[in-house]
Amino acid sequence: MKTKIAVLGAGSWGSILASVLVQNGHEVWLWTRHREQAQELNELHTNQRYMKDYHYPHALHATTNLAQSVHNAALILFTVPTPAIRAVAQQVLTHLKQTKVARPLIVHASKGLEQGTHLRISEILHQTIPADFRSGIVALSGPSHAEEVARQDLTLITAASNQVTAAQQVQQLFMNDYFRVYTNTDLIGVELGAAFKNIIALGAGALHGLGYGDNAKAALMTRGLAEITRLGVALGAKPLTFIGLSGVGDLIVTCTSIHSRNWRAGNQLGQGQPLAAVVANMGMVIEGVKTCQAAYELAQQQQVEMPITEAIYHVLYEKADIKQEIKLLMRREGKAEL
Ligand SMILES: NC(=O)c1ccc[n+]([C@@H]2O[C@H](COP(=O)([O-])OP(=O)(O)OC[C@H]3O[C@@H](n4cnc5c(N)ncnc54)[C@H](O)[C@@H]3O)[C@@H](O)[C@H]2O)c1
Ligand SMILES: O=P(O)(O)OC[C@H](O)CO
Fold first, then answer.
1. Each residue of 224-250: pLDDT tens digit?
2. Residue 215 CB: number of other CB atoms within 10 A?
3. How far, in Å, is the centroid of ligand 1 from the Cα of 128?
4. Which residues contribute to the annotated binding site?
5. Is residue 337 part of a domain?
6. Catalytic pick from 2, 97, 100, 197?
7. What average pLDDT does range 80-88 have in this prediction?
8. Model confidence pTM above 0.90
9. What letter does residue 245 receive in the DSSP assignment?
10. Binding site members for NAD(+)
């Protein structure tokens, strides 16, 4: 059945998920703040800044009018970076209050934690859009670089919600020959795995930039997974979720892919570039930088040991020397692995 869907945020991920949904036969309205970008998408069917040389389906509607995109939408998909989620959700609520139609499903595909509050994205959405104006809240997450979904490479991800029926609805709308969706009811674990893997990817990139080899990268991913699982479980996640698509799956892709902005940022830091220059030059969101601060603070609150996250925090926020931090990590007292 053809469903009206609003996709909010026309960066790499939002625009490609919108494209998948159009290919699946849905009526998709992609919202962007930028008039020239909407015009480029509607007239040339390209989005050169975010997805070079990709051609979007002609049936995709781009708009700068948020009311037009969410009006009568059965599903609203948030794909703006984490720091923008609350403000965009507040604008969406204003429009939902004006149109008394069936309550839309709220889905997000972003990966981070809110600075200061440390809230997961579903918690921000839950707080901002009251239950009277929506149905379920779902997080869509897993190993999925937009560049590969764009060329219809095989991609498997997870739709997570406290309400399994909401996750199943999302599964039905997104699934096709190259895009496979599993459901999961551990919303906490799925969102935390998605947010925390970006921190470890910064570290994996830094190791590469410094010239370390595969032993070091495999060790970082393994011990990184151990510590993000520890913090996730302390925050209410199920441990098994961290060995699923949104856990180790996304950790692997983000720590090894040249498409990853977090990996590329870490690589540049490892090569000696200052953080401010790395962020300015990326031109796209590097979620791991802010998430590292949130995870560092949460680990302290929860008294969870996260030596890798702490080392990356020292490099990002206290200008610590990366090689010195690696030396300190290696010279910690001997431990049992499990
Ligand atoms: N790119 C990927 O392959 C990918 C895959 C999975 C998940 N994600 C996640 O999706 C989210 C978005 O990533 P992306 O790669 O599309 O980022 P991006 O930097 O490519 O695009 C972000 C988009 O959001 C818009 N935006 C930023 N601030 C805004 C605001 N305050 N109000 C409205 N719009 C705003 C920007 O103009 C841009 O169009 C991130 O959380 C990321 O971790 C990305
Ligand atoms: O490019 P990154 O580092 O933001 O990663 C994108 C996705 O999260 C990979 O699954």
1. 999 999 999 999 999 999 999 999 999
2. 8
3. 19
4. 9-14, 33-34, 50, 111, 142, 144, 146, 197, 250, 260-262, 285, 287
5. no
6. 197
7. 98
8. yes
9. I
10. 9-14, 146, 261
